[in-house]
Amino acid sequence: MGCGGGGNPYIGKLGALHQLKLGRRLRVISPDSVTGGNVCIVLFMGAPLVCIEKLFSSEIQSAFEAVKEILCSGQYSYPNLESDLDVKKENGVKYIENFPRDFYKCSEKDNDVVTALMPAEIGGLNSFMPLVVAAELDLPVVDADGMGRAFPELQMFTPFIYRDQYAPSCVSDENGVREVVLQADTPKELENHYRAICVNQGCMSGVCLTPIPAEEVCRVTVKYSMSRAWRLGQAVMEARVNHRHPVDTIMEHENAVLLIAGKIVDVQRRITGGFTRGHVDVEGFGEHDGHLLHVEFQNEYLIATMQTGGKTSEVKACVPNLIMMVDTDTGEPVNTDEVRYGLRVSVLSAASAPQIRTPEALKVVSPQAFGYNHVEYVERTDYVEYGSVVQT
User: Fold this and answer.
1) How far is CA 266 from its chain centroid?
2) Residue 305 forms beta bridges with which residues?
3) What is the pLDDT of residue 53?
4) Closest C-alpha to 219, from 358, 115, 125
5) What pairing do the DSSP bridges indicate for beta strands 222-223 and 141-142?
6) Could you tell me if 6 and 322 are in contact, meaning their C-beta atoms sit under 8 angstroms apart?
7) Distance between CA atoms of 34 and 188, rounded to whole angstroms?
8) Contact predicate 205/196, CB 8 Å
9) pLDDT band at 5 (very low <50, low <70, confident <90, very high)
10) Backbone angle region of 188, left / alpha / beta, with phi > 0 → left and psi within -120 to 50 → alpha
11) What is the predicted pLDDT for the residue at 9?
């Protein structure tokens, strides 16, 4: 959705195309059609900038296999696993280090335990990776996600906001070294635990979060988000063919407001604590001449403030509303790992999904949750609901 994070989508696109070349299927199903078993959520965790230099291998598949083995074994009853494996507990998290690869061998009778996968967020690489992994496993992907956009931390995941079970889950590196969490007191403690592991693994890890029972999917997720992203991309491509301005098309599709069109004149970016953090300054031109938009990010764009004629800055947009940065000429999203001096961009603001604007959600996704205690969130309610393309 152009919010800056989730990793470079081009890498995921290449992975999906490779699966098609191998003769495998990329299947998407409506969340309303999930009737049995569990839905597993798989994702890349780390700093998006690292993905440019270090490509993924089998981290996510390794994490998924560990969670499936635990479910299929019948030995797990929250929060305990009946085994002689060494279980540790610290900082509100109960976990097993170096989870064995031969813990349990799943068979055909276990095929109905996990019936689908789902993206954690509809953002960048993390939108594609469930499709890639699902193609290898011959599973469908549910047309939904846990954010309706991208966010940098696990406690901002809607199934964690509206459910109180955060395990079992697993994090894995490219060598298949896996750590399984059996219990987490809060999703923030799970985030802190996994983030520390991720940093040790080079700021790039594969994660499989706790499965969601089929009957809970529609209640705790943002439905039809994959369809939303597909429709938006299709609208932009059609705009190019019909010689319409792609930024105008994005504004119409998302009821978005154009904050500035201009040139990037400053970028400060660093990897710290497992995140890509920094800011980007956009100097306006044309009707925005004399304006400077300052956008701060933590994997995703968090807050945009406008300075006009050297006067005091005014907050123009903040999370959980979407701050979307796109190439002015093509409408292509510009991620935080891709922003660079001289790039001509347009920055827009759009409403977020209703599921992340509730009082419960705002506790973890408001500006205050990111340390902006002086910023007041102004709710936008002009969110456009779109159905699933699977049903049309």
Assistant:
1) 26
2) 294, 315
3) 77
4) 358
5) unpaired
6) no
7) 28
8) no
9) confident
10) alpha
11) 86
